[in-house]
Structures are given as structure tokens and as C-alpha cells.
Amino acid sequence: MEDYKQTLLLLISTPLYAILIGIEILLSTLHHRKLYTVKDTLINVYLSSLNFGLELLIRIFCLGFLAYFFSYHFVVIDNPWMYWIALLLLQDIAFYFEHRVDHYCRFFWAVHVTHHSSEKFNLTIGFRSSVFQPLYRFVYFIPLALLGFKPLDIMFIYSATQIYGILIHTQYINKLGFLEYFMATPSHHRVHHASNTIFLDKNMGMVFIIWDKIFGTFASEDDLKNEQIRFGLTKNIDRPHHPVDIVFHEWRNIADDLKKDIPFTTKLKYVFMPPGWSHDGSRKTSKQLREDLLKQQ
After folding, report:
1. Cβ neighbours of residue 90 closer than 8 Å, sequence gap 6 or more
2. What's the CA gap between 7 and 73, in Å, rounded?
3. CB–CB of 211/98 below 8 Å?
4. Cα 18 from chain centroid (whole Å)
5. What are the DSSP E strand ranges found in 42-101?
6. Residue 1 predicted with pLDDT over 50
7. What is the mean pLDDT of residues 164-192?
8. Which residues sit opposite 231 in a β-bridge?
């Protein structure tokens, strides 16, 4: 039976999204900021629909998969406050590592890249989903099930944090005071979506930014000197509004690299090394780009 908490989240979040997006569109129009385009917004809705449909299709499997590991759980948290606080923190760190793998392994970047492919940054970008992510995301939640968290509760907390994650896709909220020290804020997430070299692969946290500070992936908007934030990819795709290209363009790029006359082990590197890796130095990873930038300064 579907958990009533998921239904409650949907009933609360849907009108909230509609109101806030409407306000942002109005402000963008009044201020002539051009944060929205019709084509880009429709692509965001399209990708979100594909992702949501796939998630519904495999939801029972995911819950069953986690239930299997929950049957072997070796921790019991009786205090409900401790249970939910611990689940929130542990689920968020699980998301952090999933998100980090999505950025540092080209195979998974090919899935995640759709979320970063827009040159716009607004609330609807939060719905610009990585279409195939539901096929593997639940694997990162295995430790949570083993630690005694119920599968439905895991999925509920993930859905709740997703709401927060969508709401930080905005340019209309500046710094949030002391919250900047430990929460993922719109300021932090603008960094994450930036294609400026110093911001590549930074600020992976969904709710908390502390994981980025602990594991060395944090950057602040204040670190950018003498230039504006640029959103999108370091090399934007040729047909950004094509319904097939937007999902599969990086897979085609991988296929092209695999056709090269190179050893099999090198071919594997084109699949599993970080995006931008190349055997001949013709392309560069985000780390290499940052190193080159430092040399120029």
C-alpha cells in the first residue's frame, strides 16, 4: 500500500511549486532578466515526466530490494526523534556520494548531464531530472536499510529532501546568513550549476553543505572574481531542445570514443574515468582545467 506520507508531500508540494514558479516568472518578466524561455521550461517538464514515470514503474522493485536488506538490519533506533534526524543526515550523505559519483564517473555523468545542460537557472531547473537515475539511486540506500531504517521511510525522506533541493534552484534569493555555514542554499547551488572552471564539480549537497566542506568539494560564490556565473556545460550541446539529444547526447559521445583505435583498457577509461578525460590530452577533466587556470594566475 502506498505510504500516506508520500501523498501528503505531493499535496503540499504541488501548489507550492506552482505559486513560487509563477512568482519567479512574474519577477523575471518585470525585471527583464529573461530567466525563463518556453522551450527550456517545456524540456524541464518533459525530463521530469520521464523520470517520474520510470520511478513509478520500478517503485515496487526498489522497495522490495531495500526490504531485503532491511531484513538483515543490525541497528534499532527506538527514539523517534533520533530515528528521523539520523535518517535525514544519513540519507543526505548517501545522496552526496551518489551525486559525487555522477560527476566523477563518465558513465553516470551521461545520465546526470541532462540536469546541468540548461544555460538557464530557475526553479523549473529543479525538475530537469536525470531520467535514468531511478534505475540505480536506491543502491546508495542499502546502508540505510542495514542500519534499521524502513524502506518507505527512506523513500519518504528522499522525496522530502527533493522538495528542498528543487527550491534552491533560484537566482532570486541571495545569501541566507548563518544558514550558509551548514545548509545547501541557493547561493551554494548556483555554484554547483555554474560552468566557470573554478566551480566545476562543487557543492554536491542536497540539504546540507557540510559534506562538501568535509570532503573538499565546497566553493563559494565569493570565490569568483572579475566574471559572471555562467550556467550550463563547459561545451553546450548542439540541439538543447531536442527530446532525444537532451537525454542521449553524452551516450553518443561515449560511443564515438569507443570507436577509436585504442586498447580495450583505454576504451574502458573513456567510460569510467571523469568526464573530459582523454588518452591524448585533447580534452581535460575539471581537475585538469582548474590546474591550468591556477598556472595562468
Report:
1. 143, 144, 147, 149
2. 27
3. no
4. 21
5. none
6. no
7. 97
8. 194
Side chain identity at residue 43, one-letter code: I
18, three cell numbers:
506552482
Average confidence (pLDDT) over 267-295: 94
Q: Which amino acid is at 106?
A: R
The per-residue pLDDT for range 61-97, each reduced to its tens digit, is 999 999 999 999 999 999 999 999 999 999 999 999 9
- Spatial distance between the Cα atoms of 98 and 89, rounded to a whole number of angstroms: 14
Helices (H) then strands (E): counts for the chain: 11, 0
CB atoms within 10 A of CB 58: 13
Radius of gyration of the chain (CA): 20
CA distance 25 to 36: 7
- The pLDDT tens digits of the residues spanning 255-267 come to 999 999 999 999 9
The closest of 103, 110, 148, 153 to 132, measured between CA atoms, is 110
Question: What is the chain's mean pLDDT, rounded?
Answer: 94
pLDDT at 164 over 80: yes
User: Residues 246, 49: contact at Cβ < 8 Å?
Assistant: no
- Helices 245-258 & 106-116 angle (0-180, nearest 10): 150
- Mean pLDDT of the 270-280 span: 96
Q: Write down the pLDDT at residue 8.
A: 84
- DSSP SS3 for 132: coil
User: DSSP secondary structure string, 230-274?
Assistant: -BS-SS--S-TT-TTHHHHHHHHHHHHHHTSS--HHHHHHHHHSP
- In this structure, what is the dihedral angle of CA atoms 251, 253, 259, 261, given to the nearest 10 degrees? -130
Site of grid cell 535514468: 132
3-state class of 183 per DSSP? strand
